Amino acid sequence: MKIGKQTLKLENTPKLLETSSSVGPKEADGPLGNYFDIKVNDIFFGEKTFEKAETKFLTTAINNLLQKVSLQNDKIDYIFSGDLLNQCIASAYSVRDLEIPFFGLYGACSTYVEGMILASILVNSGMGEKIIYSASSHFCSSERQFRMPLEHGNQRPPSAQYTVTGAGCGLITTSKIEKKAPFITYVTPGKIVDLGINDMANMGAAMAPAAVMTILTHLEDTGRKPEYYDAIITGDLGNEGSEILIDLCKKNGVDISKVHTDCGKEIFDTINDRDVNSGGSGCGCIASVFSGYFYQKMKEQKINKVLLVATGALMSPISINQGESIPSIAHAVAIENEVN
User: How confident is the model at residue 157 (pLDDT cuts 50, 70, 90)?
Assistant: First the structure.
């Protein structure tokens, strides 16, 4: 049921039954290393190219999810998946042997939550009972595609972010499943916001306004205050983008500073690790951090009400070379241990 401007209330409250995550060596050595399911000490993951490695990170996370819930492939109705590689090839190659009906998505770094929203809507409508959503990224393949090959040794400005090598996925099921798990209660799909920023080394500044619009719209549509949530978690704004987000929200009369955190700030030690600059980014950032860290905190009931907001910069090397700015989007989903 649609409420307000653009929020959907999922009256049948689908469950986020389980999640799975896989990460590379830098992520495994970070502050959240103990929370990831699969940690790989080889950036190539035994493959010959970074792109093939990204496919393996995603495949491994999905297969691990199926093992955790003790389900065979043929018990899954659909799978939504996306990544940053040309034509979402990491997802396509990951899913090709699963024989599960597949929807390929591209929402840039918002893809993880975009897939979660679509899976939840289908389950809520009764069009599916078990749906997987997933997303991935790889630092080296992303640098090669969007910026400069690592061999160039380019210096990165302080506002730049470090693309996460990793993947995450989850299983959305009907609320009839007896196993205890968090519910998806509301989803707020985002609108594209473009304030004219064209600096690929400052993605946080480009994406923060989209996060502001979606968060404010969600709160207005649901009638909730920021403090209703134990955490408002953004995807990969990093240090720069997070500051902009909080400031812009305050200018609109909403203070989220006490409950806000960002996956890009959480996954790396941004104080002592100079390589990561402003923090993490990429589809695999929110995918691995939420699937590994925050979902575990919800299972332990250390946090019970979460607004998960994934941001994405919907540009490409072609659009930037043509002088285009960076259009951005943010999707939000409310995940709660109890249904009010």
Answer: low
